[in-house]
Amino acid sequence: MDLFISVDVGTTNWKVGAFTSDGTLVSIKKTPTLTHFTDDGSGFYCPNELWEAICSLLKSLTDELSTHRIVTITCTGMAESMVALDENDETVGNVIAWFDTKAVKHTHKIIEAFGEETIFGITGLDISPIFSLPKLMAIKTSHRFDFDRAVKWLQLPEFISYRLSGIALTDYSLACRTMLFDIRQNNWSQPLLDY
After folding, report:
1. pLDDT for 76-123, tens place per residue?
2. CA 68, CA 139: separation in Å to the nearest integer?
3. How far apart are CA 20 and CA 16, in angstroms?
4. How much is the pTM?
5. Three-state DSSP class for 160?
């Protein structure tokens, strides 16, 4: 039987599931999301822990289903959270959790620079610290060494896809969560990238 695997990098659990072509769930493996907390209530994910956990889940799932053919693997999850990679494709720093408040002050700076209506007109998003742009600004401000070492920024689903395939790419649904994508032009917003 041909099976389709889905990887979900979720806020509560990291999971992998195998489905038939009609969407019937055949098997699922999951582990609680490894969220780290600091004394100030900030939260982060360690990208290498995430990758190891997904590998372990995939191995467990594919061992169980070894008599079946895996047709494809798809990835979904916390799209706004980004992993930095250096020139050797090694992870740089940690991943800011979706609930972390470090990026709040940067949302105010974005509002001052562009205005809420302009940002909504470009990105289709209300300004929020959960999106990638304010998180990148927070990293640039508080972890400049990590920011400067980064040559690739991948959202969590893209990171898993990249580790599995060696191809760094995104799609419109993920790009739209960065607050850097112009939804009218279907391309990256140069003014927001320049900012």
Report:
1. 998 888 999 999 999 999 999 888 888 999 999 999 999 999 999 999
2. 43
3. 14
4. 0.92
5. helix
